[in-house]
Amino acid sequence: MELMMKKLNITLILAALWLSSCSDLLNTEPEQNISDEAVIVDEKSANTALVGVYDALQGYATSNIIGVDLASDNVVNYNNQNNLVPDLTPNNAGGGFSAIYKMINQANFVIALVPGVQDGFFTQEERNQVLGEAYFLRALGYLDLVKTYGGVQLVLAPATGPDTHKGTKRSTAAETYAQIGADLDQAEQLLKETVNRTRATRFSVYALKARYFTYLQNWEQAEANASKVIAQAGFKLVKPYSAFFTGKTTEESIFELVYSTSDRNSFYTNWLSPADGGRHDYIPAREFVSQLLDPARGGARKSLLKQTAEGSWDLIQYGKPDGSSSVFILRIAEQYLIRAEARANKAAPDFTGALADLNAIRSRSDVPASPLTAASGKEAFNLAILEERRLELPFEGHRFVDVVRTGRSASIFGAVNANRKNQQFNVLPIPLTAIQTDGDLVQNPGY
């Protein structure tokens, strides 16, 4: 993933995002009269700007989920159901590249301007909260970029004009991860240990750090951060399994994007049949459906699916036709699976602890306890955890990354599509629209 590139000119993208973000945050006209200095001037506009960052996250989250899920073996296009693990092209890969940068740019405005706000009613505690959330959201954006496209250009200041970031070069994956870690450290220092399932808190940071350190195979830190979240009484595995997505902000959620009938999530239209108000763009892959329906593997997780009149299976995790389905960025089930993987892989493995975490997930979903024992060994545990992650977190954007980061893309994806044995395809291509917008933007190798 550590790919370098020639000169990268992202100014056209970011200049456009600068203008749109200013307009969104201030809701004033005309657009061209808004300067960066006017975006955040007091406590009220700082919080308005922060809400704009969350709105931008809503704007890209589903695009990233479907981009990486279609690249895996969990999801197919309804009209091309036999094309499992397809070849990726700049025309069809998606992933939300430009939309992620829109969120990052808006977070950059908050990070750059909030420290200088002169407002006697804006306390240091409130200021820290706003800044901490912005650092967390920027870290999340870059983590979604690096897992999807590899090392990317690091833009850490707001785009205030058409040439602000001209000539910015692409960083390596290692440099991108280092920036993510720095942002998460800042967020941890600024945020409080409170439970708020719709806004970033220090527990959100712990949970994202656990994922981050898993990607880096820093197992001690992955376990430590996951354990901090699991130990918090406010987070629990809910039963039945379907409760976390049929309800809203349940104890399952650490960080959840909440929608309503007035702030609708249109993701349901991609997954439901026309009879239920959707377009049937995507469906779960047939082979994977059989696993979810297997009582010994999927158990209660079959509740993610609904069979249609013609016999296919729709995903109903995002299926509320009023547009109020949540998108789950962080939930407690992932933390148990992160800790299981970390315990099995750290220098002094704790297979007993790993098995306990794995069985906590299986028990919640009414699946028999794992046949593994503490003597089964690291490879057996890793395979079991990878399968459990597929079944537990199937449509939340994890499968592609899990297969790639565990070094199994050639054996799993390549078994379906021989072209995917090429490790160059362990990242998605930059979308063609971004390449066309910026003539200096160099595509990932192989595309």
Number of helices: 16
Low-confidence stretches: 1-37
**From the 3D coordinates, which CATH architecture of the largest domain would you assign?**
Alpha Horseshoe
- The fraction of residues in strands falls at under 5%
SSE string, helix = H, strand = E? HHEHHHHHHEHEHEEEHHHHHH
Beta strands, count: 6
Could you name the CATH topology of the largest domain? Serine Threonine Protein Phosphatase 5, Tetratricopeptide repeat
What is the domain total for the residues? 2
Helix content: 40-55%
Shape: globular
Structural class, please? mainly alpha
Biggest sheet record: 2 strands, antiparallel
- CATH class descriptor name of the largest domain: Mainly Alpha
Alpha carbon gyration radius: 21 Å
Determine the N-to-C terminus distance. Answer: 14 Å
Please list the strands of the largest sheet in the order they lie side by side. Answer: 1-3
Task: Give the averaged pLDDT, no decimals.
Answer: 90
Model description:
Keywords: Cell outer membrane, Membrane, Signal. It is found in: Cell outer membrane. InterPro entries: SusD-like_N, SusD_RagB_dom, TPR-like_helical_dom_sf. This is RagB/SusD domain protein. The chain has 447 residues and is mainly α. It folds into two domains: 247 residues, Serine Threonine Protein Phosphatase 5, Tetratricopeptide repeat, CATH 1.25.40; 95 residues, no CATH class. 46% of the residues lie in helices and 5% in strands. The protein has a two-stranded antiparallel sheet with strand order 1-3. It has a two-stranded antiparallel ribbon with strand order 2-6. A hairpin with a 5-residue loop joins strand 4 and strand 5. It is globular and about 60 Å long. The N terminus is likely disordered.
